[in-house]
Amino acid sequence: MKTTLALMKREYLEHRGAFLYAPLIILVLFGLSVAGSLFTDRVDMAVSVGAPTLGKMFEVGLVVMGGLWWAYLMAALFFYFADSFSADSRGNSMLFWKSMPVSDLRVLATKALSGALLFPAIIFAFALASATLLYLAVTVGAVRLPTLAPPLPADALSALANVGALALGYLGLSLLWYAPFYAWVGMLSTVFRRWSMPLAFLIPGIVGIMENLLLYGSGGPDGGYILSFLRSRFQFGFERGEMQGALFSDTPISAPALLSSLVETIDWTQMGIGLVVALGFIVAASEYRRRVLDK
Amino acid sequence: MTAAAEPIVTVRGLKKRFGRTEILHGLDFDIPSGRIYGLVGHNGAGKTTTLNAILGLTDYEGEVKVLGRDPYRNRARLMEDVAFISDVASLPRFLKVSEVLDLVEGIHPKFSRQRAMGFLEGTDVKPRAKVGNLSKGMIAQLHLAVVMAIDARLLVLDEPTLGLDITYRKRFYRRLIEDYMTENRTLLITTHQVDEIEFMLSDIIFIRDGAIVLNRPMEQVAQTYAQLVIADGDRAPAARALGPIYEETRFGQTVMVFEGRPRGQLSGFGALSTPTLSDLFVALMERPSGARS
Predict the structure, then answer these.
(1) Domain ranges for chain B
(2) What is the per-residue pLDDT across B152-174, written as a single tens digit (0 to 9) for each?
(3) Which of A36, A209, A292, B3 is deepest in the core (most CB within 10 A)?
(4) Where is the signal peptide (chain A) (predicted)?
(5) Chain B interface includes A294 (CB < 8 A)
(6) Residues of B43-62 as b/e, b for ≥16 C-beta within 10 angstroms?
(7) Phi and psi at residue B239, in whole multiples of 5°?
(8) Which residues of A are less than 8 Å from B107 in CB distance?
């Protein structure tokens, strides 16, 4: 455990630019934007959209922000996996890491664990900080627009708890769903380093095109089996319109209801296969790293 | 052989191929505990490949045992008892000095942060400094402090002072001998600056084109090899008849290196001495192939 924590700390130190400094800058910019908008007439725009109450606006704001942070995390994780699996050879330091009593599999598994737990946790903390800013914004907005009542602290906390739980559940499930994709990029990075980024798309794309060229006219789904499988594998989320319905209804968002609905939409067999494939990619990457001394 | 007397490293029939080219041609040697071995050879002779096999960094044919374990299969476990520096510039540059120590402390069960800090006292390496901002010499000092603070039974150094100036090199080796070596520790070192490590070696291995040409304790080297400097050119033919393994002319004098020839037979021809390791290295490297000791 001590070793795992030390290796995770190393990941944090090496990649804090993407998962600490950049989010911090985004948060500061967000704070400045909110402060700026409160002292201009742009607050009126929000009202004219037709949001029924400031409480609902707060809830919608939380969901939108959660979505944006989620998108940031997913993109940052792609670059993280594309970089971290080959980062040990940067600056000729692979031999230093190899001199430590840690197996290649454990090193890569810790990198994957950092991508699955540590960095999402940090970004989630930033999302919560943004929520606090948003609450302040809504409260100050209510002062500026006396016709609107600010959400009561209890209601705001309830909204935060529900949206937070929803975000956490959605985040965890989406990370599990996309795990094979991240592991695929990581495995490619072990061999091809930064070229793993285009290759992560190029390799399945070429294989898909070859399938179409070789098997054209033999039936099957539009675009071929491979590309249509990948298309379906990239889709994750609520049923169409479900989230919008929850957002624009008069009742507050219910995390248990939305999460149970999300759980029902997930193809759990695919999820299981994906996790096994992800594990396979990490093991394959560790074997390559063990066998090929890439300084 | 008792467990205590078992060699730290046992190598039998070690071969390594890169593609169709065989780099190592079946090396055999043992490294007993408490010795300081020098592994010397030309660039491309197979030194680093041999070390990599010992450290479990590459696969191989033949048998290699380090502390009784197959290093390629058990590298992680082995690294608890084996420390190595394969390149002075291999410390991660994005970390600060204190972060390097934190990291190794968290990972290595036999690392003493206190000892490492002790080794760094009096140097210019400061805990808050970033490794990437240190000079090459300071990185070498830091790396040496890290490995010396690991209670390892075998320390392997592959060109540890490459690119460092003479001051750092001297300090590096002095520190190693004074602060690290004990009878329970074994050191295996490769370097091109043979003369700088000669004083500390207990044994020497010369490797040439993937084969061992010399594997002797240093005291046996002195007994086996003799260097004869002949000022009087007329005496050279008679000395040559005794079969030197190497001959050259230096400042008008004839220098010959003999192997296994009693010194009494040579003393009448000129000044007799034990060749330095670099002289012996040149002699054995230029010897016709196939003649191995």
Answers:
(1) 34-51+68-209, 220-286
(2) 999 999 888 877 788 888 888 88
(3) A209
(4) none
(5) no
(6) eebbbbbbbbbbbbbbebee
(7) -65, -40
(8) 3, 6-7, 100-102
